[in-house]
Amino acid sequence: MQLRSHRTERPRSWQRSGLRWLVTFAGFPLGGLLAELVVGPVDSVAPAVAGGALTGLVLGAVQAWALAPERFVPEAWVGATAVGFAVGLGVGAAAVDYGTSAGDLAIQGAICGLAVGAAQALVLRNRIGLVALAWPPALAAIWALGWTITTAIGVDVEQQYTVFGSSGAITVTVLTAALPIGLTLRAQRATS
To answer: Other C-beta atoms within 10 Å of 9: how many?
Structure first.
């Protein structure tokens, strides 16, 4: 005897994809807190790389959860985000000599966003093709904005955190919601 489920799967909507992505906001402060507790301030290459990897691991895991309806391999997304964040923060923080001025952090954010975007684009390319090439520069600009907002509202950035504060994270999360929304709309067009 075969049991049938009365539960029907609701079709994905771009609104649900966007709302699910908004939860990823939590990955920024949680990843930053973990890195702060384990590694400390980003004041040299080793803490930058290790802190970036930890922050990226947490952020990637939360984002992979949000992208689950799109059937991404979560390990690929998490790994790409962690590696991209480690490389990006390592290079970005060193490029500004671990400075914490608004300009320094915008540059650091742009470099880190570019690296995370490039790593994530490798995962995205099989799904969206050459459009994935737009993700790294978009993330670079958005992450620079995240640090600019965090600095502008008076967060104690001289503590040398791995990632921007909640105000920047909210902005970045809202702006990057274009990714899951676009993936959902693309999937809907493909099945129509």
So the answer is: 6
From CA 40, how far away is CA 109, in angstroms rounded? Answer: 18
**144 lies in a domain?**
yes
Q: What gap in Å lies between CA 86 and CA 45, rounded to an integer?
A: 10
Residue 117 domain-assigned (yes or no): yes
The DSSP secondary structure of 126-185, one letter per residue, reads: HHHGGGGGGHHHHHHHHHHHHHHHHHHTT--GGG--SS--HHHHHHHHHHHTHHHHHHHH
User: Does residue 188 belong to any structural domain of this protein?
Assistant: no
Q: Structurally, how many domains does the chain consist of? A: 1
Q: Report the pLDDT value the prediction gives residue 103, as an integer from 0 to 100.
A: 97
Give the model confidence (pLDDT) of 12-65 as tens digits. Answer: 688 888 899 999 999 999 999 999 999 999 999 999 999 999 999 999 999 999
- CA angle centred on 153, ends 150 and 155, rounded to 5°: 60
**Side chain identity at residue 124, one-letter code:** L
Nearest-angstrom CA–CA distance, 110 and 7: 45
Range of the domain at 91: 14-179
- Residue 91: its H or E element: helix 74-95
d(CA 192, CA 190): 6
182 Cα distance to chain centroid:
16
